[in-house]
Design brief:
By secondary structure, this protein is an all-alpha fold. The chain has five helices and no strands.
């Protein structure tokens, strides 16, 4: 178990560093207030994770390599790719209701959770 944690941790470290570098590069070069850096990371991460799973379905890949690349590297790069793969898998297996629920929970409700967390830490003050 410790070996698996180290593999995922090393991949997460690499993915996090790559996420920071790519997002910053894209954002600085976009000259826009829209979060193009985050969008670029999410799109690339989703494409890479989908490609990896397609590759894994066609060939035997060692468990440690899978862990490093998926949970580690892609997970550290963007968890949005994991959310997208989970939703794709639910849709692909015909479970449209759960796919929709996953989108609702991870997109809409999580944004509400960010708002709630922000408001708890920084509540609005009453007008004087």
């Amino acid at each position: 178990m410790m070996k698996m944690l180290m593999i995922v941790g090393l991949g997460s470290f690499a993915g996090g560093v790559l996420r920071f570098l790519l997002a910053r590069f894209v954002q600085v070069n976009s000259a826009s207030s829209f979060p193009w850096g985050t969008a670029a990371v999410n799109l690339l991460g989703c494409f890479i994770l989908g490609s990896l799973y397609g590759l894994f379905d066609r060939s035997l890949v060692h468990t440690e390599t899978r862990l490093f690349l998926t949970a580690g590297l892609c997970g550290g790069f963007t968890t949005f790719s994991t959310f997208s793969l989970d939703t794709f898998n639910l849709y692909h297996t015909g479970d449209l209701m759960l796919a929709g629920l996953n989108i609702l929970l991870n997109a809409v409700i999580c944004i509400c959770a960010v708002w709630a967390g922000y408001r708890i830490v920084f509540p609005r003050t009453a007008a004087a």
